[in-house]
Amino acid sequence: MNQHPGVIGRKLGMTQIFGEDGTVTACTVVEAATVVVAKRTVEKDGYSALVLGLGELPEKRANKPSAAFFKKANVTPKQTLRELRCAPEFAASLEVGQPLKLESLFEEGQLVDVQGITRGRGFTGVMRRHNFKGYRMTHGTHEYRRHGGSIGTRMTPGRVKLGQKMPGHYGNETVSILNQRVAKVLTEQNLVLVAGAIPGARGCLVVVRGAIKRAGGKKKAA
C-alpha cells in the first residue's frame, strides 16, 4: 500500500514548459489547496492516515453532522474529503486545520503516482474500446466493417468464454498512472505541474502521491 505523502487536487488542464535548452515539456496542471480535516492514529483507529479537504462548501449546504465535524476541526466546510494512508511520523508532524504545503511534499524531478477517474465514453464498439483493427473497407464488405468477428467456439465448450472482448461500457473507471515526473511546483498558487497526461477530464478529482514502485518517489529530507 502506498503510504508516501500526497495530496488531492483538481485537474485544471494542460500547459507547456520551455526548458533552457529549448525543449518543450507537456504538463498537466493540478490545483491542490488541501487542508488537514482529521487524523487517524494507530492507537485509536488501528492505522495511520490523514483526512484531507478540498474546495469550499457554503455553510448553508452542510448538514448538521458535517457542520459539527468541520467546526470541531476549526476549518470551513469542504466540498470533497479523502482519506490517505501515511506513515505515523508524517501524520504526527501535521495538525488538524493545517494546510498542506506543496513544497514540503514534492520537488522538481520527483516521481509520483497519479490516480483519477477516466472520462466516461458510454457504450462503445470494439474498435474504440479494445483497439480492434476492424474489417477491410473494400472488396464487397457489407455491414461488417467495424464488427468484432467470431465470439464462439462451436460445440466445445459451446458458449462465449469469460472475458471475451466485446462492445460495452467504456471509461468512467479509476486508473492510476505510475512514475510520472513532477515538472514544477508553484507553491504560491497551490499548483503541481506533472509531466505528461493524467486520467480524467478537466475539473475532476485526482490523487497525487510519491511513487511506490521506483526509487525517487519520496522527497529527500532537507
> What is CATH's topology name of the largest domain?
Elongation Factor Tu (Ef-tu), domain 3
Helix percent reads: 10-25%
What is the C-level CATH assignment of the largest domain? Mainly Beta
Q: Compute the number of strand runs.
A: 11
Which structural class best describes the helix and strand composition? Answer: mainly beta
What's the gyration radius in Å?
Answer: 23 Å
Uncertain residue segments = none
Q: Order of strands across the widest beta sheet?
A: 1-2-10-9-6-11
- What is the CATH architecture assignment of the largest domain? Beta Barrel
Q: Spell the H/E element sequence.
A: EEEHEHEHEEHEEEE
Quickly count the domains. 2
* Proportion of residues in extended strands: 35-45%
Write the layout of secondary structure elements.
Elements lengths: L5 E13 L5 E8 L2 E7 L1 H4 L3 E8 L7 H10 L4 E8 L2 H5 L18 E7 L5 E2 L1 H4 L38 E2 L4 E13 L4 E5 L9 E6 L12
Antiparallel strand pairs: 1-2, 1-11, 2-10, 3-4, 4-5, 6-9, 6-11, 7-8, 9-10
